[in-house]
């Protein structure tokens, strides 16, 4: 099955998330809503695909044979049977899903904060489970609704309803012990991936930190805080921009490097220049505006347990 990630051309997703969260909170207050800890567990929601190539009632996401030709998609070189080999299909937004499969489908990733008789709450969104919902464990084993529990981290794939709840088509339980670690166990010089959310004080609050394989560059993903002729700012870090900076408009914004502005979500590959103590933007790529977190893959330079501060790739994160 193809790997699906956040798609582009959904600039309104941030507003949609806010509306979904609002209505989900209202739903959770009703008499038949799930019960359990009501914490606003961080997470994300992504618009994905609900295409049904062969019209058999099973969307391609969960259909093992999208074109119903008797050959598993894993072995089929043209799994939508359009005459174009899968490896030649255009994926203009580089999200891992070919363009004509980018319809509307919702993916929610986060921690279960509440559970009821036939629904759960993930990322403050009510997720409804029915007889068609398929649930899988960490090792792809088929499970029942009883296996789901509060505080369990999951990925939910489903359809957004008129009341802003989501009817789940597939739920996958994630290994929440993966490589996520306590910041207190980190050491200066460790290469990590950090995800953080903007707090109400103009800083960043830690969502998670995991150990990461060292790279020869640092990578940053988030909304620009500023953009000028010779530098852009992300996560409080200034990145030099010059003739050596490669630009890719993969979100199809119609912008050039010179048109970037504060609020644009981008992915930056950067190199830290020791002699000048500055960061150079080697590549800037536009991204879907739907996500709300800041992601940094870089080296830990500061760990302050007294002030509970972690500095990764120049970005300061509170935990």
How would you explain this protein's 3D organization?
The protein is mainly β. The protein folds into 2 domains: 13-173, no CATH class; 183-318, no CATH class. 5% of the residues lie in helices and 37% in strands. The chain is built from 1 helix and 20 strands. Strands 9, 10, 11, 12, 13, 14, 15, 16, 17, 18, 19 and 20 form a 12-stranded mixed beta sheet that branches. A 5-stranded mixed barrel has the order 2-3-4-8-7. Strand 12 (226-227) and strand 13 form a beta hairpin. The longest helix is centred in the N-terminal third of the chain and has 16 residues, at 13-28. The chain is globular, with a radius of gyration of 21 Å. Mean pLDDT is 78; it is low at 1-40.
Architecture blueprint of SSEs:
Layout (H helix, E strand, L loop, with lengths): L12 H16 L14 E6 L56 E11 L3 E4 L2 E4 L5 E3 L5 E2 L9 E8 L5 E8 L17 E8 L5 E8 L6 E6 L2 E2 L3 E4 L2 E4 L5 E3 L16 E9 L4 E9 L6 E12 L4 E4 L2 E4 L1
Parallel strand pairs: 4-8, 5-8, 14-17, 15-17
Antiparallel strand pairs: 1-2, 2-3, 2-7, 3-4, 5-6, 7-8, 9-10, 9-18, 11-16, 11-18, 12-13, 13-14, 16-17, 18-19, 19-20
Our count of domains comes out at 2
Strand content: 35-45%
The Cα radius of gyration reads 21 Å
Distance between the termini: 37 Å
Number of strands: 20
Largest sheet: 12 strands, mixed
Quaternary state reads single chain
